DNA sequence: CAACCTATGTCAGAATCCTGACATGAATCA
DNA sequence: TGATTCATGTCAGGATTCTGACATAGGTTG
């Protein structure tokens, strides 16, 4: 049961993974009563903020493959949360939009998720939060830069 | 191809997920030539720093279930990277240890992973890094506190 | 204009991981 | 001491996700 003293805890990468893991668990916990998974919620949130997103764009935004997002979209469409045109208005892209039902479902989820984020940020000053924001963006940028160009 | 302007990017939770996702992808990229997955590497690194860890403890440290860690350990044991006693010296816990081969394998992986972490931290001052460390620990603590007690 | 390259949506298969459940050993407590 | 509670290792099953592959549409370049 020794959990202290692990030198891995001096690694920012490990800490990042741990934070992300805990955040995901917390989100799943509050989303489960609503019958929603994290990817499910992410998809709806993305569509609310950027209506007409394609399957591939949604996949990138939710950090899953387009194949996984596709099966999710088919379920969401079948259950009436989103709509996709039967035929692509241009090219092969099928722009997806929230239905009123999807919007209602998202509202409750947003409240739940926001409460988790508030809890996560408790104890941090505004300055610290903006600092964290800037640092995370820097990490993402630095990692992406040398991703395939190395 | 619009990727800017997403309001989700003002969310620290989303940014945390994005950073973790990019970090994982970067680690997988450098680990793949070594025939190693991230969980695989995490397991070895944990064992190097805390020899004798049990399957359940390794699972918690690598953020997977003990069932998943168990199948990984069976593979690692079969391939000679780790050793577990045939019988538990005390209770049911089987303390796991790295073999010389496992240690050698880990060394190369550690170099690769460390290069990713260095790249991630490029452009951040020492002060910013320790700030990020403190902020992430605060987030984890805040989320864990109200995890099941709410 | 034609060939090439990229991106998208989709299908099929495999791999991975998790949920549920069981028996066993240790610790706690009456 | 005996019962209870908790944690561990393990097995079986199912669900989710990913990898690989294909055809098609659009833009690019010669």
UniProtKB/TrEMBL annotation, chains A, B:
PANTHER family: HTH-TYPE TRANSCRIPTIONAL REPRESSOR YETL (PTHR33164:SF43), TRANSCRIPTIONAL REGULATOR, MARR FAMILY (PTHR33164)
One GO molecular-function entry: DNA-binding transcription factor activity
SMART domains hit by this protein: HTH_MARR
Species name: Streptomyces olivochromogenes
Biological process annotations from GO: response to stress
Name this polypeptide is given: MarR family transcriptional regulator
Domain HTH marR-type stretches: 9-141
InterPro entries (UniProt xref): HTH_MarR-typ, MarR/SlyA-like, WH-like_DNA-bd_sf, WH_DNA-bd_sf
SUPFAM superfamilies per UniProt: Winged helix' DNA-binding domain
């Amino acid at each position: 049961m020794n959990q202290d003293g692990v030198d891995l805890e001096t690694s920012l990468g490990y800490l990042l993974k741990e934070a992300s893991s805990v955040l995901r668990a917390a989100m799943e916990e509050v989303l489960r009563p609503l019958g929603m998974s994290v990817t499910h919620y992410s998809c709806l949130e993305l569509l609310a903020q950027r209506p007409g997103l394609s399957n591939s764009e949604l996949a990138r935004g939710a950090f899953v493959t387009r194949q996984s997002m596709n099966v999710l979209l088919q379920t969401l469409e079948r259950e009436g949360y989103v709509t996709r045109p039967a035929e692509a208005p241009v090219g092969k892209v099928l722009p997806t939009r929230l239905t009123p039902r999807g919007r209602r479902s998202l509202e409750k989820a947003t409240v739940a998720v926001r409460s988790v984020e508030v809890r996560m940020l408790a104890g941090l000053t505004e300055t610290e939060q903006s600092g964290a924001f800037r640092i995370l963006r820097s990490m993402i940028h630095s990692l992406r830069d040398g991703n395939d160009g190395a």
